[in-house]
């Protein structure tokens, strides 16, 4: 629980604290943008990364609500959902939680442990993409970055849609 709280403190509550500090100023000036750096893990789960994904899911939920709250004041929110970028994610500086023997062989953990230096995304290109989207007349709420993120998120959306369609009758049968 301490490790989960630590991850949430940094990845969720840290972002919330910064956001809380800046929102009154943006609201007062009637313009601006808040860019939340999430992850494709903010929309889909990777086995072995429950705490990371939970923090990103929480950040996305808070950010989506915030977007609706600040929009009348001329403030925009952009949730950035990158895939694998050359940022040392997976490298020696990455914090790793206690390893549980039963989950030691999860393929996602092994993939991340060996990915540093091979990520396809360029952080400089990501920054340019974010600026380009912020300059758009009607920017999206969410921006997937990287072909891996686009494909993974597209697949997740299709999976969600298939489940909704397959179980629609059961879902609708709950009415009074």
Automatic annotation (TrEMBL):
Pfam families reported in the protein's UniProt record: adh_short (PF00106)
Keywords annotated in UniProt: Oxidoreductase
PROSITE patterns tied to this protein: ADH_SHORT
PANTHER family xrefs: SHORT CHAIN DEHYDROGENASE, SHORT-CHAIN DEHYDROGENASE_REDUCTASE FAMILY PROTEIN
Provenance organism: Amycolatopsis methanolica 239
Domain of life: Bacteria
InterPro entries the record matches: NAD(P)-bd_dom_sf, Sc_DH/Rdtase_CS, SDR_fam, SDR_oxidoreductase
GO molecular function: oxidoreductase activity
Family in the record: Belongs to the short-chain dehydrogenases/reductases (SDR) family.
Keyword Protease: no
Protein name, entry field: Short-chain dehydrogenase/reductase SDR
């Amino acid at each position: 629980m301490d490790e989960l709280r630590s991850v949430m403190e940094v990845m969720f509550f840290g972002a919330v604290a910064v956001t809380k500090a800046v929102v009154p100023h943006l609201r007062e000036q009637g313009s601006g943008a808040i860019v939340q750096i999430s992850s494709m893990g903010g929309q889909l789960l990777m086995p072995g990364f429950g705490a990371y994904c939970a923090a990103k899911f929480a950040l996305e939920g808070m950010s989506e609500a915030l977007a609706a709250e600040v929009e009348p004041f001329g403030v925009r929110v952009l949730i950035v959902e990158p895939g694998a970028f050359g940022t040392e994610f997976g490298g020696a500086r990455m914090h790793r939680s206690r390893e549980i023997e039963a989950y030691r062989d999860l393929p996602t953990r092994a993939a991340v442990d060996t990915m540093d230096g091979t990520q396809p995304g360029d952080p400089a290109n990501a920054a340019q993409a974010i600026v380009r989207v912020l300059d758009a007349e009607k920017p999206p709420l969410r921006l997937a970055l990287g072909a891996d993120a686009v494909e993974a998120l597209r697949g997740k959306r299709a999976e969600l849609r298939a489940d909704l369609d397959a179980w629609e009758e059961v879902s609708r049968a709950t009415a009074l």
